[in-house]
Amino acid sequence: MALRFFYSQLFVTPPALTGSYTGQTVIVTGSNVGLGLEAARTFTRLGADTVILAVRSLSKGEAAKRDIEATTGRKDVVRVMQLDMASYQSVLDFAAEASKSLPRIDIAILNAGVARGDFESMEKDEGTITVNVVSTFLLAFALIPKLRETATKYNIRPTLTITCSEVHEYAKFDEKRAPEGQIFPRLAQQHVNGKHIDMGERYQTSKLLEVLAAREFCDLYPASNFPITVNYVNPGLCQSELSRDSGWGLWFLKLFLARTTEVGSRTLVIAGSSGVGSHGEYQSDGKITPPSEWVRSEEGAKVQKRVWDELVGKLEGIKKGITKV
């Protein structure tokens, strides 16, 4: 795993896209900085009719909009909408407004995420889990009706892409040993067996949970009878603001190995443009790649089902009926 990581970071450059997105509407979450900003810039440059910057701070979103307009020369394309992934109500409000105000959604890149160094509860869960896992899938389910409508009305196949990470391979995920139905409650505890939980492990765990949930969703809703392509992408280690909450270790690693933000963002654009063949697939370096061996193991499949069942229960508790697609 380590050798593959170093080889990818040092010797693989995902290709830049040169296609056209004329007529399309694209949503990119977490797009006022980093990978999301650069992906939104690419979609704008390549002709998208509407690009939604879904961001927590409207002022920062407006600054990002001006930056994209200045570098692409395109006006009246980028639109800023508020989305706070730390608030389930904000997630639902954003999805409702997007579904109401946008005539179509062709591509949704669910990219917003955090790598937190300190334990903080958000919506009764630890913040990394709230933002990276629960809110991400809450938003995915909340957007599916509009994506379905787009598929039917325009005879196309929209794409929903989740930004995950190769670090899912390194997750210890001790919480998988929790009793039945107790994985998420265990993840919400600051202390387990009298010891403070290891926050240095939490980001990796959140990304593993994303991979497991995305795989289970696509197992339940295969491409043959589901009109939306759902995939999940590893952009690699990139220059971004992800390390702002995660301490010096990640900052130091990025100093020597990270891809530029623009190069990393290419993976998001590629995934959002991959089509039906990528449904249910993990992508890395701009191509379909197997996720970790453990994810594909018999144990991984059993844990995947447990994670999914608990996650669906949590989402139904937030909004009844939201997981009925």
From TrEMBL:
Transmembrane segments: none annotated. GO terms for molecular function: oxidoreductase activity. InterPro entries: NAD(P)-bd_dom_sf, SDR_fam. The keyword Oxidoreductase applies. The keyword Oxidoreductase applies. Keywords: Oxidoreductase. This is Retinol dehydrogenase 12.
